[in-house]
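A common beginner's mistake is to predict each chain separately and then try to dock the pieces by hand. The better habit, illustrated here, is to supply every component at once so that their relative placement is modeled jointly.
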Amino acid sequence: MITPAEYVREIPAHHRLEAGRCKKCRKIYYPARQVCPECQAREFEPLSLPREGKIVTFTVIRVAPSQFSDQAPYAMGIVEVQPGVRLLTQVVDCDLDKIEIGMPVSLEFRKIQEDGEKGVLAYGVKAVPR
Amino acid sequence: MITPAEYVREIPAHHRLEAGRCKKCRKIYYPARQVCPECQAREFEPLSLPREGKIVTFTVIRVAPSQFSDQAPYAMGIVEVQPGVRLLTQVVDCDLDKIEIGMPVSLEFRKIQEDGEKGVLAYGVKAVPR
Amino acid sequence: MDYWIVGLLMDSHLTINPFIHQSIHPSIHYPKQMMLNFKTTEDTVNREVVILGVGMTRGGEHWGKSLRQLFVEAALAAIDDAGVDRIGSMYIGCMSSGLFNGQEHIASLMADYLGQKHVPATRVESACASGGAALRMGFMEVLSGLNEVVLVGGVEKMTDVSTDGATYALSTAADQTYESFYGVTFPGLYAMIARAHMHRYGTTRKQLAEVAVKNHLHGSMNPFAQYRQKITVDEVIHSTAVADPLNILDCSPITDGASAVILCSREIAKKFANGNPSLREKPLVKITGSGQATDTIALHSRQDITELRAVAEAAQQAYKMAGKKPGDIHLAEVHDCFTIAEICVLEALGVAEKGQGGKAAESGYTALGGRMPVNTSGGLKAKGHPVGATGVAQAVEIVHQLRGEAGDRQVKNARVGLTQNMGGTGGSCVVHIMEAL
Amino acid sequence: MDYWIVGLLMDSHLTINPFIHQSIHPSIHYPKQMMLNFKTTEDTVNREVVILGVGMTRGGEHWGKSLRQLFVEAALAAIDDAGVDRIGSMYIGCMSSGLFNGQEHIASLMADYLGQKHVPATRVESACASGGAALRMGFMEVLSGLNEVVLVGGVEKMTDVSTDGATYALSTAADQTYESFYGVTFPGLYAMIARAHMHRYGTTRKQLAEVAVKNHLHGSMNPFAQYRQKITVDEVIHSTAVADPLNILDCSPITDGASAVILCSREIAKKFANGNPSLREKPLVKITGSGQATDTIALHSRQDITELRAVAEAAQQAYKMAGKKPGDIHLAEVHDCFTIAEICVLEALGVAEKGQGGKAAESGYTALGGRMPVNTSGGLKAKGHPVGATGVAQAVEIVHQLRGEAGDRQVKNARVGLTQNMGGTGGSCVVHIMEAL
Ligand SMILES: [Zn+2]
Ligand SMILES: [Zn+2]
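With all components supplied together, the output reads:
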């Protein structure tokens, strides 16, 4: 339910996992930021996150928001792609009972949701256990 | 765009012009209140407002909210039904160019809007010049 | 696990909690500037802020009452309890009257319908911490001297929209673009905290359930609670799954409700209390500590998923201002929006050692009659969670307890209470410490 | 009409405005308790609050920037201008990120993205007066001593929804159940004020238009203005009708934008200014007066449709605190959401006699070079009206003016400025007075 404009602005992050690395302290932020919370520096260099990682924690959503209700139950997990660099995504193409903390996953480009009213299809990544 | 629940709760006011008169200072409030801003008293007796009044001020809405766009242009006015007792409503069944401050009107029960999504029809009063 | 000692074994509120020394663990570093800026009340102003009156509606599905009616009902109760006839200004905590009710600008609406013509009024929003944030604004206003009698209220009317509409409105407390967009719900976010806590610290499903069981037991003694039935661990564990490992009975409900308190300076309070026989016989309740902090809005941006840093920061500020340690607190109302939340909060407050919060409810430590009763009101779980009102309702309970007005759920010799209210997954937090004078 | 004297005839900012004695007219009675509670700064605290730095984005349609990016851009500009490296707390004025952006809890979001880890942050909402209310919170926090360096920002991103979506979001500042429900829009409500004012006082269509013409002229000199083209009375009168008698050029636009100021105590400010060469050469700007008030949310509930009582109340408080009269003010930024609004506001501020506000722009009294320039920034009309940011942007302009940084639109010898920000049809209002030290 983000607006179409917000979706379009954030495509580089959602589709291509574009992140930012602080030029001063080297910390990586996803999504990219304007200020580094660690060192207050404001210069970042762009980079794309790796598409492999492991599950830090997860859940199975059984009561879902309406635009996801046709997918329920579905798993969601926080995936760490580099030490300290994480994102939240669905965990798919697997047995929901077999998901574990520490499990290695690949991040694949998938459809995330449809906005029924405006007909916008939104894409991003989903985690598939390797 | 009020919720159906809010509409239902306020039917006595919208449909029947139910108001409240402060038992202490006799001031009339539409809609009825829990506290009198004039004297801080909390007891009120119900009454229905008269259905005749005069226009205090008005406008013609030419750029309308979507659920009213099929009615535009339409006039809206603040109608005084008793000294100091006023309400806001549409002014209908008249030439928009002929509406004037001080004009006597009758308040008639009419359909106010349709909520397209939920299909709720909402009713209230509209002012018709006498 | 070695550090955990069942609190019931301790016999007095006045003994120092043995966990204290490790409880605020050393990995928390406070930003330098914050420490520099931060001064205790004593350093800066000589005003003391008192809660003179409290009021609230029962939590529930108030189909017949509008947003403004609910607020006015609670505000009038607080005004009557305080015995004031006029207020100098108002703050209103409310998370999303825009999405729940199609109504913003409720500062004007509520001042108007409360009959307080022209009084300054401000709405404060910090998701589910809106009420706590409003309380801090009122505290600050009395400290600043701009007004001496301030009403702080909170309100949320959540049942005017469908459950899906309410789920959406609540999801706006998370990062809409990087969390909600991917399909997560609030139970889902807290479920991920729970899973990580269980995995790292061995917290059990039963321990989660014990939080809900305790809070329903407390709620059964509170006439203002939305749910007054007792529940069992078995019922929690077998209730409908919402987001694994959390079930419906791990979650606070959707609630309509409002609450309010009247704040004033201690000097003014004395004058009012002298003229009000019912207040004269009861202790005045003073706010001795206030703390507020934030954390990343997105759960996945945090170094440690199980650690509520905003809670720890806010608590540290409040403890410092009040000159108290966690062991000095006699009872607390904390933000148990989900059972796991109460567990992590107790750790962040320094009441339980990191990772050991799961044992608090299970051992009876936080139950009525235990070493440090938590959520005697029933908490968000049983009392209900009208999100913007919750932080103020917590203060209402602490005042009732410190005044000895809590009936069956009265904590004996309660003189120091704490409220902890947070937004989102802990992206914002407000903590207050209150003491009976 | 007899009372009106063209201000241009007066030659000095220091002469007392001859309208003053009648200007706060006797029908305004302040509630007793408010007066009782109200104390000037001098009575209660010895802290003085200074605006150390300011920053803002240009108003406009920022398709490429998100809500958080806009806010951070303005906040960083203010931080740089002040030369501080850390802030102690934050307030964010925002009317409806819930309806415009599906995002509440922006206190957490903005503190996070501004890189201010764990800093206390609070969002404040009072419809279009959200920014002014946030400014008052920051002022109060510095007065209270809780924090010494406070960032106050405002933000609104209004172009992410359709015009109809924006119209709906804005309509939530009115009484949703007794105003918006019947089909009225905000232009419609102000149009009814305009019609009543024209009918009673003989205000003309041309006088309304002169407000927009003046503010566009001012905006043409402001690099931060959304619209920098000059317009004519004829263009206003013949622009598209929106709600009779108001046309599109009587209305402020839909705007994305953010603004921020850094507040601190005067003592701290001196230290920073000494270490910051660019600040050392400029006067410090102190907030000497703050006032806030409310009125009925519904326009039709007011005794006099043309009178903005909340503005008069808030102004009276601010004048009293600052020890100033309307004639002492050298320039003002006021809430010209519609042309008629500026007219009624000038009357409520005591700058124009009741009913005579229509002549202010027409006579040149409120133009740059006139007796009391109003909205030198271009006002909401030309600078843009990102609703929650507007109240803070007003302070940004006054600081630029009092520091002598306003370029082509600089008011000569400006030492006392006023900001007036209101929500809805005047259901809430915040007024500040600022002086160059
Ligand atoms: Zn860095
Ligand atoms: Zn009365």
